[in-house]
Fold:
Amino acid sequence: MKIFVTGVGGQLGHDVMNELAKRGHAGVGSDIAPQYSGIQDGSAVCGMPYVQMDITDAAAVSRALDEVRPDAVIHCAAWTAVDAAEDEDKQPKVRAINVDGTRHIAEACRALGSKMMYISTDYVFNGQGTEPWQPDCADYAPLNVYGETKLGGELAVRERLEKFFIVRIAWVFGLNGNNFIKTMLRLGQTHDSLRVVDDQIGTPTYTLDLARLLADMIETEKYGVYHATNEGGYISWADFAKEIFRQAGLPVTVTPVTTAEYGLSKAARPFNSRLDKHKLVESGFALLPDWRDAVGRYLRALSEG
Structure:
């Protein structure tokens, strides 16, 4: 298959491109930078075909995809700076990327008859309660601009395509970019204790594991909306931090605090990020490994890099 991947300069796009290369697919990467701007780790993504493309430019998207004519598009590009998205002066750009950009890609896929996979988020829900969110739940009520625009992207895909996958993920970490684990490791070098929120509940997602699942999915026609995180149960950010420090061998005391006690965040965060993944099993896809195992493999990869 020829597969076009957006956002290859980010955490997930980097790993998706490498996974496609392992499977012998013809991957074509894209991002807004003139050339690939992710980590230069010698992996396949660094040497695969790359197309500069601004997804907010409808004509540019149509032109690029018409030239490549992919069998499928995996759309990883997004504005993901949740707090910055709340700034009034940035909101037009956030909407242009997450909503309009996704619509442009969906329209190009429709014109070409290509499959499309859109990476979404638990932030499309209101984050209340304790029950895991179901993939086909339509009780949307995003708490912040980021969530609103990612939901807008979902709707743009649904309205234009029949051959689509929407995959909602949460608490992402990967080698190519910043994330919670890297932040904890950095702070753990200079602090012997940290306050970490314990009333926001979810499950981490390692991009390396997720990339394998996304490749499995794009090779099929089992279209629809899915949830995907690592296995291992639902935890708090404080639980996550404790496990990071334990496996990293850092003597840092984690003090659990409520979101209100922690403060700082400009954007409202969901308390309930539990995602139900039964649909993956029903569709015959392999679940991701335990998140603790993923943390261990990730820390080893960081040390080797």
Observations:
- The mean pLDDT is 94.
- The two ends are 30 Å apart (CA to CA).
